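Bench notes, afternoon.
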Amino acid sequence: MLVEDERQAATQPPAAMAELIARRAEHVAGLRTSGQLLDAGQLRPSATGKRLRKVAGQLEVRDGPFDAGGSALGAYQWVTAATLDEALALAGHFPRLPGDRVEVRPLMGGRAPKDKDSRPGKVFACVVLGAAANEAGWVSVMDRIEADTSDGFPDTHFLGGARLERPSVGRSVGGRVGVLDAPFLESKEVVGGVFFMQMNGLDELTAWAAQTPFVVHGALELRELWRS
């Protein structure tokens, strides 16, 4: 997962950003040629998204951006690798700006999206977030979400997705310092999974998401994907 410094990106000259996007496309093409790429995508700016949760039983819908520091999930790659070190090496080649980092997390399971770029309408990444005082509590939150949502996806809209392993088995590459261990939770919202939905628009997706247990146990961030 590319955790992007959106404020830094906004200051780049258009030509520099066009070059960066082209380099990312080449990187993805190389992974596809090697057979390691299962899926990849680029998210639209967080300012165009929404984050939903229920607080004291009342639905809270926030417009992006969501991080005061300017960080946001900017892109993802779903790859196969024999070891975490191999995955970290792949992440190290992800074209990015100096303030960006790539978080590498193994997957517990899931279904890679198929042909999502050719679907009509809009395709959205739905980022599942949970907060807890410690990792055991966070895993418990994710377990509840999975138990209550595993059979609740509408077949006509669901395109696939995955649950991520706990943060402590992951690593981060880049940013201002090299390779880091996963962060201690300290009640911070942490990504626990991502799934993909094809909808006519953000309003339709928001109406569906508001009725799901995702927003009861944790939060759900809705972000449209760029389409080629």
